[in-house]
Write a structure and sequence with these properties.
This protein has 324 residues and is α+β, with helices and mostly antiparallel strands. Helix content is 53%, strand content 15%. The protein folds into two domains: 196 residues, Porin chaperone SurA, peptide-binding domain (Triger factor/SurA peptide-binding fold), CATH 1.10.4030; 88 residues, Chitinase A, domain 3, CATH 3.10.50.40. It has a four-stranded antiparallel beta sheet, sandwiched between helices. Strands 3-2-10 form a three-stranded antiparallel beta sheet.
């Protein structure tokens, strides 16, 4: 397993957790008020985190962004959301317990990366649209960065799949790696048949098709000397596909008219249909297996966190929160 592959899978899982947490919901309170450390009883306790109805409502409004939730899906979404919020804060609690934190340098670096995508005015407008002041937004960003860091550190402990594991998966799942017939070709596309005929004659006379494609073709790949790259059977316009897959490699096609113009084709190389070899798919299988290992470990790890930290939900208070 390469370091780049591991980092890619870690980013995938961190992004997955963030997406699960950021479900688009809004909760409206019925019968509960609130702040995180207000006078009311908490609706949820997750380790040292106490959430009152109002604190939970504010979190939901921030996450939801005003998106409506269909009534028929409200109960299921609400249940899944609560589970994800619990998981989110459990990860934060684990980080605190294990002295994992976000340094000021880490925070500023990530903050600058985000702000780089916006002008100052645009960034302020984004915050205003979410009804969030900058201090609260930065607090939430710190938590999200902490969650990402904790998960990264936890998952780094998992051993990558061995070559033998990869080989066994390949042998058991060969059909997943079947590939259709493919070919690599170049083309010249002209606006008129007369121009295509002139260029065809010049190619027959010995001029280089790639150079002519670069100079005269109106297709996007003209700069690449007309080279389109590898294309699988079934992915082209029917008239183009019939001409290309019946053409011998190295030969110039007749002029083919399509909705794009008048084409001259040259097939440069072919790949027959069949099953890819292990060397071709080893990185794909490696990524799949490490993702599976991460998902299994992550699920068990979260279950353990629920036994390591106090988790309490006031169901009566939760029942008074309805999705809108």
């Amino acid at each position: 397993m390469t370091h780049g592959m591991i980092r890619g899978e870690i980013r995938f899982l961190i992004h997955s957790l963030y997406c699960l947490f950021c479900l688009t919901l809004i909760f409206l309170p019925l019968g509960c008020g609130l702040s995180d450390h207000g006078r009311e009883d908490p609706v949820m306790i997750i380790g040292s985190k106490h959430l009152s109805c109002d604190a939970l409502k504010k979190e939901m409004e921030f996450i939801g962004g005003g998106m409506p939730v269909p009534v028929k899906h409200a109960r299921g979404i609400k249940t899944r959301l609560i589970e994800q919020i619990i998981d989110y804060y459990l990860v934060i609690e684990y980080g605190k317990q294990n002295n994992i934190s976000i340094s000021e340098n880490e925070f500023q670096r990530n903050l600058n990366e985000i702000k780089r995508e916006y002008s100052e005015d645009a960034f302020r407008k984004v915050l205003l649209q979410g009804y969030v002041d900058s201090a609260l937004w930065e607090h939430r960003l710190r938590n999200q960065l902490l969650v990402g860091k904790v998960i990264k550190l936890v998952l780094e402990k998992i051993a990558p799949p061995s070559y033998e594991e990869i080989k066994i998966y390949f042998q058991k799942n060969r059909n997943e790696f079947r590939s259709p017939e493919m070919l690599r070709f170049r083309q010249i596309v002209c606006k008129s048949k007369k121009e295509a005929e002139t260029l065809r004659d010049r190619i027959y006379a010995g001029e280089d098709m790639g150079k002519l494609a670069k100079k005269y073709s109106i297709a996007p790949e003209a700069e690449a000397h007309g080279e389109v790259g590898w294309v699988a059977r079934g992915h082209l316009d029917e008239s183009m596909e019939d001409a290309l897959f019946s053409l011998q490699s190295g030969k110039i096609s007749p002029i083919i008219k399509t909705s794009f113009g008048y084409h001259l084709f040259e097939v440069m190389s072919r790949r027959p249909a069949g099953v890819k070899g292990l060397p071709e798919v080893i990185h794909e299988i490696e990524a799949l297996l490490i993702r599976q290992k991460h998902e299994v470990f992550y699920k068990k790890w979260l279950e353990k966190l629920r036994s390591d930290f106090k988790v309490a939900v006031n169901q009566d208070m939760l029942n008074k929160l309805v999705l809108s």
